[in-house]
Amino acid sequence: MKIEDIEKRSLEYAEITAPTYANGDFESTIADAFEHGANWRINSVWHSYKIKPDKGKLLLVEDIDSAYDLVYLNNSNPWEELSKKSHYMRWAYVEDLLPNKQEE
């Protein structure tokens, strides 16, 4: 995920969210926004099994029993066959789960 994606989504969220800082309750407002942003970030990297991932990338996949596997998708493992056989529900690129390495 790129910083531009996060900035874009934060601006979209700011446009649709009504401020809730009545009576000077800024801490609650900040906490709500932080929680919403954290949940969005966590969930934004996951894709339905119906979406075909790129080959040559390492995936973390979740099956119907909520068990997780690491999968490297290549030409010998067609995604449709693999996901159906293993009952995958969703997947994420491992690189999207790792912390950003950008300079601070």
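[next item in queue]
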Amino acid sequence: MKGKIHELEDIRAKVEKLKVKNDGFVEELMQLLNKTTSQLSKIDDQQEINWTSKSFDIATDLKNGETNKNSEEQKDLALTYLKEALDSVIIREKGYLE
């Protein structure tokens, strides 16, 4: 369990360093989403899976140019969903260790 927490905290630190104005933002976000998804359990992490899925959908739309909305706002929203998912799962996993 400590390994999972460490991996999630590492991903979270990388997410925090992402800047929506950077070139390659969407690609980096999608890599982090894939890493996050691989750490989520289907049973315990359903809400986090939903948030991660929303972030992935936004990132996919951005990558494919399928969004008419403000690109920067959409990037920020995708980042927020991923941060929420990671924070939630990290807090719960740490609670299991207590």
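[queue empty]
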